[in-house]
Amino acid sequence: MRETPEVLPDRDPFVQEPYLQLGDSQDPASMMVLWHTEDAESVWSVEVAGSAGDPAPASQAVCAPETERHLVYRARLTGLVPGERFRYQVLRNGEAVFQSCGRARKSAAQPVRFALFGDCSHSRPVQREIARRAAQAEPDFILLAGDIVYNYGRISEYREKFFPVYSSAMRSIPFVAAPGNHDMVLPNFGQFADSLAYFLYWDQPLNGPRIASGAPGTSHVLIGNEAAQPAFLAAAAPRYPVMANYSFDYGNAHWTVLDSNEYMDWTNPGLRQWLRDDLAAAQGAVWRFVAFHHPGFSSSNPWFTDQWMRPVAPLLEAGKVDVVFSGHRHNYQRSVPLKFRPGKRNDKGEVPGEFELNVPGGVIYIVSGAGGAELYDAAQGSDRATWQPFTERFISDRHTFTLVDIEGGVFRLRQIADNGEVVDRFCISKQALPGG
């Protein structure tokens, strides 16, 4: 069981208490810890199990209208033993002001458990219950499949809806995230000057595609207006915009996380080459997973034409991807193993093509978007006649999260409801050898 974290009495200088992140490293012996403080003169350091730790954590000032200026500190925890528990403490002016524990990243030889859900921070009571049950399962990490915080991905919304719910888990469990539309595509800095907090408060790999800002197919919402946002750019460097796409290894699995918002054109040759190269470099992994927010294959009747991620399907198949995880639809859906040859996107937004269903080497597509926001398509889950032929399971009348256990060449998934009921489960077995 996780130990109870501790903010030491009369020593609470935090705007946001420390939380763990994987950081921009593939080294299983390291991890990042972040915390936010008021803009005040202090000397900060971190210790791990009594060692010297990071004596000089980096900080960046966050300045936005209607938000008090504050500092985000980042410190690297090093010397961790893969898979082993560790204790760490954060010190201010030489005095410990926070203590907690965590578990180092797993090696390829160790079993891994992860939890996953999307569309979560909406201030609904069920959000807390899903968060509680996911943390109670003691996963090695939790991945959020986009729409991290509603409605505009603002600093104020992280303060009100995200950190109050997840802080207790994030002290000891690293969270990972894929960006969704509510995190990215609505940051009108004229209206909401504290937008794009994703680039301020997360610390994830910076190995995404190095395509020049403004290149065709990569027109991020700020492009063309970056010079007008110097405070944001200073606080978000070097994460903006590269942290929207990245990959990492955990245990014997390789993860590729994509920005699936429409400004990212995944028919762009440069983006496709990055994805192709990333998956090719991961062929030594037993498991290969991809996560992005907008599902290419969904039976939901509303927004059925949101199919712009379908063109990556042949790349995922060629890269031997096992499972793709998405959110966006506020429900749970599971496809059969499928292959898809996309055609040209039509005027309706649909991407027609040729399907092969229940085929060897097919990819399983999971939608796990019932993490806290209002449910979608409540009646459709019980009306199989409305499902697409590729859909195997559709649960839309309850909030759920995904829990996966991996041991060697065995993958076991359980979909767990907010009342603890297991509403779906399946297993994939493969020879536990490099390359799967």
Question: What can you tell me about this protein's structure?
Answer:
The chain is an alpha+beta fold and 436 residues long. The protein folds into 2 domains: 6-103, Immunoglobulin-like (Sandwich), CATH 2.60.40; 112-429, Metallo-dependent phosphatases (Purple Acid Phosphatase, chain A, domain 2, 4-Layer Sandwich), CATH 3.60.21. The protein contains 7 helices and 23 strands. It has helices at 125-136, 155-170, 181-184, 198-201, 230-236, 269-280, 313-318, and strands at residues 6-7, 14-21, 31-38, 44-48, 58-64, 67-77, 85-92, 95-103, 112-117, 141-144, 175-177, 246-250, 253-257, 287-291, 323-326, 332-335, 338-342, 353-357, 364-368, 391-395, 400-407, 410-417, 422-429. The chain has a 7-stranded mixed β-sheet with strand order 12-13-14-15-19-16-20, with helices on one face. Helix 7 links the parallel strand 14 (287-291) and strand 15 (323-326).
Class inferred from helices and paired strands: alpha+beta
Instruction: Work out the radius of gyration.
Output: 21 Å
Q: How are the strands of the biggest sheet laid out side by side?
A: 12-13-14-15-19-16-20
Q: H/E element string?
A: EEEEEEEEEHEHEHHHEEHEHEEEEEEEEE
Q: What is the class of the largest domain in the CATH system?
A: Alpha Beta
Shape-level CATH architecture of the largest domain: 4-Layer Sandwich
Poorly predicted runs of 5 or more residues: 432-436
Q: Based on Cα principal axes, name the global outline.
A: globular
Oligomer: single chain
CATH topology of the largest domain: Purple Acid Phosphatase, chain A, domain 2
Task: Write down how many β-strands occur, each being a DSSP E stretch of 2 or more residues.
Answer: 23
> What distance lies between the first and last C-alpha atoms, to the nearest angstrom?
32 Å
Largest sheet properties:
7 strands, mixed
How much helix is in the residues?
Answer: 10-25%
Strand content is: 25-35%
CATH superfamily of the largest domain: Metallo-dependent phosphatases
When the domains are counted, the total is 2
Q: Determine the number of helices (DSSP H or I, runs of at least 4 residues).
A: 7
Mean pLDDT across residues: 91
